[in-house]
């Protein structure tokens, strides 16, 4: 039993990101890993849990039946741009999933937690979005369809929901181009309300980097680009996975 436990703990540790070398783990994280290993080290469960820990995470950035014809048409347009260096980024229910071993870690560390923008199971109810990025041009574009549960002013999207999609899209752009970051500053000018159910483009561009700081600017427009809904600038600061997790 103890040998199984240690073997399982060793497997878990091997899947941790490089920044989380077992030698550097805090006592509490070591204890958490060991406790999980003890809990699941009974042979039959070990196999079942190893499978569960290694299963592929769901990608929320692919079309689902709630996507409108306009959302689908934009999705197909950006997918077809693949040849011009546009890459669709996968979207998971936890930020941790992007780190090496993050899938495993997210089952151990606050397992009931979910990314704010991916916390509704009902398709189309809240944030429906997908992000395409262009490394060479240091840009990303988020196609965003706002569901009915994001209402602020009657029939229109809540300003906090708009801030959330801006924070997410610019944060994904910064993470994609410079690695793990946290938002240090976000400034938004709301220009025109966004009707609920509509599809908008959230276009992000990396302006510059200075040491650990990444400056990103953003514009939200209607799908055809004719109406400006919001403009924003954001500052992100690079952090280690350890800082993200909170130890
Ligand atoms: C095929 C795979 C592709 C992968 C694609 C990737 C996809 C990614 C997927 C999913 C991403 C999801 C994205 C989500 C995004 C959401 C992010 C959030 O909402 S984060 C939550 C809200 N933010 C906080 O809670 C932070 C709270 N603040 C802090 O923790 C600290 O203040 C922190 C980390 C921001 C900075 O703290 P320090 O101690 O590490 O660093 P110090 O020394 O204070 O600052 C570093 C530099 O930044 C400047 N700075 C810091 N804060 C500033 C501010 N507010 N304004 C101006 N400058 C600031 C400082 O003056 C300093 O500048 P000088 O290096 O001296 O020039």
UniProtKB/TrEMBL annotation:
<protein>
    <recommendedName>
        <fullName>Acyl-coenzyme A thioesterase THEM4</fullName>
        <ecNumber>3.1.2.2</ecNumber>
    </recommendedName>
</protein>
<keyword id="KW-0276">Fatty acid metabolism</keyword>
<dbReference type="InterPro" id="IPR006683">
    <property type="entry name" value="Thioestr_dom"/>
</dbReference>
<keyword id="KW-0496">Mitochondrion</keyword>
<dbReference type="InterPro" id="IPR052365">
    <property type="entry name" value="THEM4/THEM5_acyl-CoA_thioest"/>
</dbReference>
<keyword id="KW-0472">Membrane</keyword>
<keyword id="KW-0378">Hydrolase</keyword>
<keyword id="KW-0809">Transit peptide</keyword>
<keyword id="KW-0443">Lipid metabolism</keyword>
<keyword id="KW-0053">Apoptosis</keyword>
<dbReference type="InterPro" id="IPR029069">
    <property type="entry name" value="HotDog_dom_sf"/>
</dbReference>
<keyword id="KW-1003">Cell membrane</keyword>
<comment type="similarity">
    <text>Belongs to the THEM4/THEM5 thioesterase family.</text>
</comment>
<keyword id="KW-0999">Mitochondrion inner membrane</keyword>
<dbReference type="Pfam" id="PF03061">
    <property type="entry name" value="4HBT"/>
</dbReference>
<feature type="domain" description="Thioesterase">
    <location>
        <begin position="155"/>
        <end position="227"/>
    </location>
</feature>
<keyword id="KW-0966">Cell projection</keyword>
<keyword id="KW-0963">Cytoplasm</keyword>
């Amino acid at each position: 039993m103890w040998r199984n436990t240690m073997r399982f703990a060793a497997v878990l540790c091997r899947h941790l990101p490089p920044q989380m070398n077992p030698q550097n783990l805090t006592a509490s994280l070591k204890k958490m890993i060991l406790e999980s290993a003890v809990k699941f080290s009974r042979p039959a469960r070990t196999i079942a849990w190893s499978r569960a820990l290694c299963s592929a995470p769901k990608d929320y950035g692919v079309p689902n039946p709630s996507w409108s014809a306009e959302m689908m048409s934009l999705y197909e347009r950006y997918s077809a741009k693949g040849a011009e260096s546009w890459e669709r980024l996968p979207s998971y229910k936890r930020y941790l999933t992007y780190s090496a071993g993050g899938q495993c870690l997210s089952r151990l560390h606050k397992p009931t937690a979910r990314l704010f923008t991916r916390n509704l199971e009902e398709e189309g109810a809240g944030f429906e979005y997908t992000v395409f990025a262009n490394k060479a041009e240091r840009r990303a574009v988020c196609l965003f369809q706002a569901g009915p549960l994001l209402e602020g002013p009657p029939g229109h999207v809540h300003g906090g929901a708009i801030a959330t999609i801006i924070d997410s899209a610019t944060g994904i752009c910064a993470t994609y181009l410079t690695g793990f970051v946290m938002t240090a500053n976000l400034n938004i000018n709301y220009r025109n309300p966004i009707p609920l159910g509509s599809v908008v483009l959230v276009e992000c561009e990396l302006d510059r980097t200075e040491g650990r700081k990444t400056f990103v600017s953003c514009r939200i427009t209607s799908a055809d680009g004719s109406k400006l809904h919001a403009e924003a600038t954001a500052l992100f600061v690079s952090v280690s996975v350890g800082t993200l997790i909170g130890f």
